[in-house]
Sequence to fold (377 residues):
Amino acid sequence: MKNVYLDHASTTYMTEEVISLVSEIMRMNYGNPSSIHALGRQARAIVEKSRKTVAKILNASVGEIYFTSSATEANNTIIKRSIVDLDVKTFITSPTEHHCILHSLDKVKKEHDVNVVYLSVNENGEISLEELSAMIERYKSLGKIMVTLMHGNNEIGTIHPVDEVSKICVAAGVYFHCDAVQSLGKINIDVQATEYSFLSGSAHKFHGPKGSGFFYMNNENIIQPYIDGGAQERNMRAGTENVYGIAGMSKALMAYVDSREEHCRTITEIRDYFETSLLTTFPDVKINASFATKRLPHISSVSFPTSDKADMIMFNLDINGICASSGSACSAGIEEDSHVLKAIGHPSERKTIRFSFSPRSTIEEVDYVVEVLKKII
Ligand code: PLP
Fold:
């Protein structure tokens, strides 16, 4: 049986060069970066070299990059500490953010006297900049505001207009936090050209190791640590550093950025080929957010017409060796659209599958998926 992995937005493979580096560090550089002996100093040097690389890619200064265990941790840190340390009173966000943002906001709303307000999104998952400005205007008298918006959506691929959002935030004196997990590597992020207060990323989305993330924090907006303990990460994030994870993350990011044009051309071509094949074969299929002004190159969210067979698509793809993601959540045995699909007004009776591509995805794989779909629908 064939094995076709089209779930790269969920997580993806590590490249050989990253695996080699990570294994080499595991084997040879097992010192604790906080130790002052030679092995510790070697590990410290690896962490600091990695920080330099990530900072360079973002055009940030080295002191503005903080390593974490994941983007989930980074986003929790930023949201939860900004209430205490920056006196944020209102969060403006969108209903299509990742759960690590939305669930953090649900929690802080219960525990603190803060407002959490949601921008509306259209059928492509796009926000309105006019509504953002109006919301800032409406809430500014209540105290400090943080706008937290992702760069590219992980389910439907819609790209938020972060340059314009940043300009609005700067003009209004509002913090801007951007979850850049899905776009990092694929889209150039320059923190000098576009001002962010905070920005987060995760290694396993760009062929780095799982369990390694980071955040950029603009030097002007210092928060206190979310995890207390030792003085690691310049007192910002306690816990012995994941040296090989950090090194693998910086190596993977650098490699992606170095091949960005080629990678993005490849994945866009393959995604477009997939969508054209699907639409030709199944005229009733809908590609969610395909009319968004801008969308990520690697994500295709496909909504299938209702039928008994459509209900079994995920199962049947799986038994045919195809890995993709379901666009639904199951609660109490009843499948429901994800919060993102609900927010864009997707009809819940239609089954949605997210296919996501990498530079290794091939035309043959796509042809196989379409053939299997022909059989199972
Ligand atoms: N934000 C977005 C947009 C994501 O897609 C993900 C992971 O799927 C995360 C945050 C969480 O990242 P991590 O797996 O590093 O916790």
Q: What stands out?
A: The pocket of pyridoxal-5'-phosphate is lined by residues 70-72, 98, 100, 150, 154, 179, 181-182, 202, 213 (CB under 6 Å).
